[in-house]
Here is the input.
Amino acid sequence: MNRTLSLIALVLATAATSFAGQAVSCKKVVAPAEECRFRANEWQVDAAVVGAGGNYNGKSGGGVGGNLGINYFFTQYIGIGVDNSVGGFWPWSGAGAVGVDSLQADLLLRYPICSWNLAPYLMVGGGATWGPASQGDGNVGGGLEWRFAQNVGLFADCRWLYGTGAPNGNLSMALPRVGLRFNF
Here is the structure.
């Protein structure tokens, strides 16, 4: 009987090891998701060079100046912004440069492409332009922002200012900007 039990134990032990395979792990390896550099609840500060070209105060001309702005994005896609451009405007005919100040407020709509750290955006709003002729205006435009670091990016945009009612003619001017954008 001992021989039979020993034989059965030997067969079972041999069979058990022959069915044993490699250990299988149930762990899944998940790569961390890349964080998008364009966030909701984001404050931005803009510093830019601004140009101008078109009709102002009844004269056609161009100009250059500086621009400072602040923006806030409620969501990753929708925000508001206010900026002020100060510079000189030189008529193409006639003499004498004049100082111009343009304060604008905009609704901003952007579409982040997170894998490229790029965000095209649209802006629509209004404001006022002061100088020899002061008047309210509307604006519409668009631009592109590229974030080369988590909190710093380059941007370029252009808006078209339009308005009527100035004493010497209508406002119809392009206002392009190129600058740095700091994000918080």
